[in-house]
Amino acid sequence: MIQQRANFDWMLKELAESVSNVRQVVVLSADGLRIARYGGDPDAADRIAAACAGLQSLASAVATEIPDSSGKMNMVIIEVDGGFFYLMAAGKGAYLAVLADQFVDAGMISHQMRDLVIRIGAHLTSPPRRNGQTV
Prior knowledge:
Shape: globular
InterPro entries: Mycobact_SerProt_Inhib_Rv3364c (IPR053141), Roadblock/LAMTOR2_dom (IPR004942)
Protein name: Roadblock/LC7 domain-containing protein
Largest sheet: 5 strands, antiparallel
Oligomer: single chain
Number of domains: 1
Strand content: 25-35%
Number of strands: 7
Structural class: alpha+beta
Strand order of the largest sheet: 2-1-5-4-3
Pfam families: Robl_LC7
CATH topology: Beta-Lactamase
Organism: Streptomyces xanthii
CATH architecture: 2-Layer Sandwich
Distance between the termini: 11 Å
Domain Roadblock/LAMTOR2: 9-100
């Protein structure tokens, strides 16, 4: 279970402020619930978290078609008009999502996301839920 998520707030802020042009950082569970966020609107963070559940599922399904793949999604990057979206596995059942504008340093944001996951990934776990209860 994610413990004391408020303790992650400063780390999310550090990630957002360490790379220019980051707009929002969201930590979410595999079933699409927002766990923590920095920047942006809370409702937008909830929508991002919900969309990410489908995206990570889709990426994992596609990964099974790659020979010698475990089927585990590690990172997805989407480029759209005006910016980028990054989704990275961050712990058992948890993910880190970043929205950035078109001028973000793509290599730097990927590097900073990996660093953050290494630092806090062991603490970012979200056990599966059934009927709203942790299983």
